[in-house]
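[Primary structure, fold]
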Amino acid sequence: MQRLHSLDALRGFDMMWIISGEIIVHALAVASADPVSVWMSGQLRHTAWHGFTFYDMIFPLFIYIAGISMPFSMGRKLEGKAGVELKRARREVYGALWKRTLILVVCGMVVNGALEFGGCEQTRFASVLGRIAFAGLFAGLIVLNCRLRVQVVVFAVVLLGYWALLMLVPVPGIGAGVLTPEGNLAGYVDRCLLPGRLHRTIYDPEGILSTLPAVATALLGVFTGRFLRTRSVGDLYKGILIGASGLVLLGAGWLWNLVFPVNKILWTSSFVLYAGGWSLLLMAVFYLVVDVWRLKRWSLPLQWIGTNSILIYMASHGVVDFEYSSRFLFGGLVQGFAIPWQEVAIGSGMLIIQLFLLRFLFKKKWFLKV
């Protein structure tokens, strides 16, 4: 099966918002104060605790996309092999999973400032990249060792089990089912078991226990990827059915929210379904437009981002100061704008520089593959 350009484009769409897109929108909201920009700016901020915004979907969407890739990458390595050759291929897949996990965990710690050498107590070990790594690792192990029916059972057990843990297991001195920042079980586990510095002092949004339901998010992607690889269903109907499944998950997540609130920080089971629903809907739209109807040219800049997503994430989160580069290159032009609009121009300059570099890498076929 040929490469899914829609998957690269969707990954790029997802990543664009956190490398410079949000900067542009926030600056535009301040400069223009128009209702649409102000609303978009609000959607590009995390909810304080319970609730859901577009920004809360960016992280689970990336894990979902990583899950979609698994059936394709593993299928290429394992299909058509038997006996000794299959065993060798499976060992290679296992090795690749563990290698990817280690690299992403280390890269996540680097993004968190590990190279500042502040000591173990000042190092934040949990990270966005680390969660992507472990969600992908455990989802991959499940895929390699379980049939589809068992994978679906594991998905359900993880979500129901996590719900039971947070609602039924008491936190010492607080009790069970307390879903406040101070009283939830996931935060308590982080305080007891997670070494180093916690991102929010009393809990970490990428902590230990809340990584468990993130595996279910990756499995949602795996199910989607398996479905996309089937030959018995036409491409148009694949897109329609993925979109319809997204609507079902949205409804299920909303209903579960009534008793187990949608919460990105806790990565609640209702959040998995609700964010998953939006993820499936976006995948359906991108798949239909880019791969089925073959309207690809508009998505090329997103594909430049999507094919080097980890590289640009690390670059824009500390390795490269794109704001400085934008002011250095476009500072003279920016002076001609009214002061409120100068930040919009600087943010736009950052995106231009990023796209220029990523286009160069894309043309050279230089990709950071993890």
Q: What stands out?
A: DSSP finds 14 helices and no strands in the chain.
